[in-house]
Recover the amino acids of this structure.
C-alpha cells in the first residue's frame, strides 16, 4: 500500500491569530514582529502585506518603506502557543500518527484512513473545516506518498489550499519547481546548485550523484533522493518525555531567600500539576540554579519511592536550595525545578500512609479547580505574592 502522508500548515499563522482576536485586521496588510520604528524583523506578514513584497525575516523598517499603510503589531507568544495547542488537538482527533514539526505545522500519517472519511482528500477537507470553524484559522494541506512531497504540496497550495499528489506523480509534480522549494535547500545550497547549472528540482533529480556528493557530502545524496520524490522517513509521534521541569529567569538577579522560595513553590506546583496530569510519579527531583556570573549548577535528590505531590517536590527542592545557597553567595539569575525517573503510581504503600493520602487528595482537588478556573485560581500562601506576575494558565 502506498503511504498517504499529510502535511498541514496554518496560513500566515501569527497574523491570522491576531485577526481572529481583532476582526478589524481581516483583509488588511498586517505585520507581526514589532512597530516600524523598532529594530527587529517581520515574524509574519498577511497575504495582503505579501503582495507588497513583505515577508518573514525582512527588517521592519524595510517593510514600512514598502508598505507604509501596513498595520504593525508586536504580537504575544502565549496567544500563538494556545492556538497551536488547539490546532494540534484537532489533528490528534483525526489520527494518532501525528508529528508536530513547529507551532503551526504537522505531519499526519493517513494511510488506510480512506474507509473512515470516504477518501484522504475528504479527510483533509474535514480537518480544514474543523480548524476553520473552531479556531477561525486557515490551514493548507498537502497529501503525498512521503513527507517531503507532502510538504512541498502544502506550500504550493497556499493560501487555503489542498493539494494531493497522486502515487506515481511525485517526480513530475516536483520537476518544474525551482530548487529553493525543496525542503533542505537553504540560500547557500541554492547558490552552489545554481552555479552548477541546477535550477529546477527536475535538474537536481537527474544530476550526477557523484558531483552532488562531492559538494554536499552525505546530504547531497539525500537531496537527490528528495528531488526524485523518495523519502522513507516515518511520521514519528513525539515520545513521552522522561522528565518534566519548569524554570524562570529573573528580571533582576536576587539574593532574596523568601522570593526564591516562593518562586520555587510556584514552579513546584506547576511541575506537580503536569506530573499528575500525565498520571505519573517521580523518583528524582532536580534543582537548577544559575548565578549572576552564569555558572549553572544542578542538585539532585532521589526519593525512596515515587511521589506526585507538590509538597514533596517543593520540600525536596527547598532542601537542595538551602544547601546550595549556603555554599554559594552570588545572586541568583535563574531557578528551576524538575522531576525525572517517572513511574506508574504504585498505590498500595500510600494506603498505609494517611498523611500521604490526604496530600494526594488535596492535590487532586486543587488540580480540578485549576483545570476549570485557571492555575492562579488557587494560591498557596507562599505564591500569593505572584498573583499578578504569572499568567493565568
Ligand atoms: N515565524 C517567525 N520568524 C520567521 C518565520 C516564522 O517568527 N522568520 C513565525 C511567525 C509565523 C510562524 O512562525 O506566523 C509560522 O511560520 P511559517 O513559515 O509557517 O509562516 P506563516 O504561517 O506566517 O505563513 P505561511 O502561510 O507561508 O505558512
Ligand atoms: Ca504557516
Amino acid at each position: 500500500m502506498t503511504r498517504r502522508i499529510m502535511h498541514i500548515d496554518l496560513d500566515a499563522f501569527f497574523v491570522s491569530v491576531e485577526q481572529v482576536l481583532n476582526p478589524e485586521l481581516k483583509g488588511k496588510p498586517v505585520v507581526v514582529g514589532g512597530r516600524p520604528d523598532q529594530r527587529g524583523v517581520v515574524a509574519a506578514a498577511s497575504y495582503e502585506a505579501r503582495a507588497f513584497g513583505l515577508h518573514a525575516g525582512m527588517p521592519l523598517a524595510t517593510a514600512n518603506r514598502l508598505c507604509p499603510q501596513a498595520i504593525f503589531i508586536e504580537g504575544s507568544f502565549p496567544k500563538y502557543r494556545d492556538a497551536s495547542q488547539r490546532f494540534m488537538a484537532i489533528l490528534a482527533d483525526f489520527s494518532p500518527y501525528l508529528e508536530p514539526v513547529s507551532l503551526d505545522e504537522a505531519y499526519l500519517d493517513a494511510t488506510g484512513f480512506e474507509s473512515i472519511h470516504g477518501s484522504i482528500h475528504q479527510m483533509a477537507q474535514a480537518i480544514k473545516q474543523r480548524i476553520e470553524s473552531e479556531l477561525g484559522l486557515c490551514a493548507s494541506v498537502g497529501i503525498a506518498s512521503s513527507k517531503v512531497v507532502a510538504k512541498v504540496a502544502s506550500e504550493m497550495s497556499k493560501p487555503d489550499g489542498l493539494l494531493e499528489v497522486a502515487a506515481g506523480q511525485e517526480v513530475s509534480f516536483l520537476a518544474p519547481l525551482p530548487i529553493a522549494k525543496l525542503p533542505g535547500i537553504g540560500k547557500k545550497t541554492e547558490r552552489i546548485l545554481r552555479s552548477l547549472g541546477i535550477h529546477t528540482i527536475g535538474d537536481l533529480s537527474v544530476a550526477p550523484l557523484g558531483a552532488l556528493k562531492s559538494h554536499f557530502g552525505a546530504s547531497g545524496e539525500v537531496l537527490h533522493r528528495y528531488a526524485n520524490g523518495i523519502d522513507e522517513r516515518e511520521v514519528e509521534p513525539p515520545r513521552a518525555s522522561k522528565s518534566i521541569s519548569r524554570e524562570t529567569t529573573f528580571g533582576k538577579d536576587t539574593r532574596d531567600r523568601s522570593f526564591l522560595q516562593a518562586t520555587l513553590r510556584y514552579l513546584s506546583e506547576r511541575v506537580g500539576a503536569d506530573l499528575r496530569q500525565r498520571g505519573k510519579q517521580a523518583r528524582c527531583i532536580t534543582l537548577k540554579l544559575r548565578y549572576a556570573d552564569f555558572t549553572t549548577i544542578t542538585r539532585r535528590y532521589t526519593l525512596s519511592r515515587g511521589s506526585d505531590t507538590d509538597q514533596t517536590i517543593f520540600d525536596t527542592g527547598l532542601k537542595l536550595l538551602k544547601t546550595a545557597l549556603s555554599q554559594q553567595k552570588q545572586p541568583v539569575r535563574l531557578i528551576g525545578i524538575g522531576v525525572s525517573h517517572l513511574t506508574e503510581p504504585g498505590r498500595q504503600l500510600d494506603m498505609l500512609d494517611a498523611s500521604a493520602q490526604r496530600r494526594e487528595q488535596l492535590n487532586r482537588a486543587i488540580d480540578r479547580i485549576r483545570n476549570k478556573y485557571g492555575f492562579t485560581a488557587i494560591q498557596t500562601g507562599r505564591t500569593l505574592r505572584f498573583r499578578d506576575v504569572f499568567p493565568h494558565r
